[in-house]
Amino acid sequence: MSKNVDHQNEYLRSGLWKSLMLISVLILIGISGYYFFFGYSIIDAFYMTIITVGTVGFGEVSPLNDFGKIFTSLLILFSIFIFAYAVTTISAYLVSINSILDYKKRKMQQKINTLKNHVIICGYGRNGKQAAVKLRSYNRQFVIIEQKKEIIEILNQEGILNIEGNATDDETLIKAGISHASFLITSLPSDSDNVFITLTAKQLNSKLSIYSRASEESSLKKLKIAGADHVIMPDKIGGDHMASLIVAPDLIEFLDNLSASTAGTMNVQEIMLTNLPQIKTIRDLHIRENTGCTVIGYKMENGEYIVNPDIDFQVKTDGRIIVLGNTVQIKNLNKVFGL
Which domains does the chain have, with CATH numbers? Predict the structure, then answer.
C-alpha cells in the first residue's frame, strides 16, 4: 500500500511538471508565431499570446488575416485543453496529499493500537523531548501527544509515534493507547494542565503510573492528590544538581555516568519480581553468574531502599532489585530476565 501511494504521488507530481511544460511551450509557440508570421514586436507578441491563452477577450493589437485568425483559434483551443489538464492534475494532487496524510495517520494509529505497556509523553518541549531521548536509548516504546503542527511534522520525519491533539482531551489520550499504557509523563509548562491531565488519565486507567512536571511548589500537593505517582520540579533538580557538583563533584559525575546509558560505560537497571514468584532470595537469581551485573540495592514494598543487600536477603514478589553493570552486562540482564 505504501509503495502504491508513493508511486501515485510521483505520478501526480510528474503530471504537474508536464502541465507547466505544456503551458510554457504553448506561450513560446504563441510569441514566436505572432512575432515571425505577423510581424508583431516581442512585447506585442507576448501580450497577444497572454490574452489569447488566458481567453481574456481583449482586442487585437492589429487586425489579423485569415491565417492569423486560424492560428489564434488553435492557440485558444490548445490552451483550454492544457489548462483543463493542469487544473485536473493539480486538483488530483491536492486530494492525493490529503489522502496520503490520512493514510499515514491511520498507519500510525494502527501501530499505536498494537502497543502494550508503553509510555505516553504529553508535550514535546524541553522536558518531554529529553524524556523521549532517554526512553529511546532504553528501547522503550512511547507515544508523543503534541498540539503544534511544526513539531508533529518533525516527529513524523523522525519516525516517532505521535498523536496531534490536546492532551487534556479524553479522546486524545484514548488515541494514544492510555488503556493499555503503563506510564504517562505530563511535561506541559502549565501546572493546571498537568493536574487536569493527571486526573483524566487516572480515570481512564487507574493502574497507570504518572510522572508529572511542576513549576510551582504549591502544585506538588495538588498533583499528588490528583493521582501523580511522582512529581518533578526541573528548576529545583537543576539547582540541586549544580550545587551538588560544587560540594561533591566526583560523586555526582559518577552518578551522572551511571544514569547516562547512551554515553556512559556503566548503567543501572531494575528487576521487578512480580513474574518471579519462585525467587526467595537474591542468591536464587544468580545475577552475577548469569549476567555479570552487581546487585547494589533492593526496593521494598513500602518504598524503603536497602543498599548493598546480602545475597541471602529475603525478597518478595512486589519488591525490586537494582543492579549495576556495563552495557554488555545490562544487555545480558535484559535477555536473561526478559526486560
Answer: 2-110 (1.10.287.70), 115-232 (3.40.50.720), 265-337 (3.30.70.1450)
What is the C-alpha separation between 40 and 54, in angstroms, rounded?
19
Cell of 125: 518541549
Could you list the beta-strand ranges (E) of 36-124: 118-122
Burial (0-12, 13-18, 19+ Cβ within 10 Å), 95: exposed
Helix (H) or strand (E) run with residue 219 in it: helix 218-226
The set of residues, in sequence order, having a beta carbon less than 8 Å from that of 110 and lying 6+ positions away, is none
pLDDT score of 11: 60
N- to C-terminal Cα separation, the chain: 34
Cα 159 from chain centroid (whole Å): 6
Mark 171-194 as b/e (b = at least 16 C-beta within 10 Å): ebbebbbbeebbbbbbbbeebebb
Query: What is the model's pLDDT at position 22?
Result: 84
Least confident of 60-64, 108-112, 310-314, 320-324: 60-64
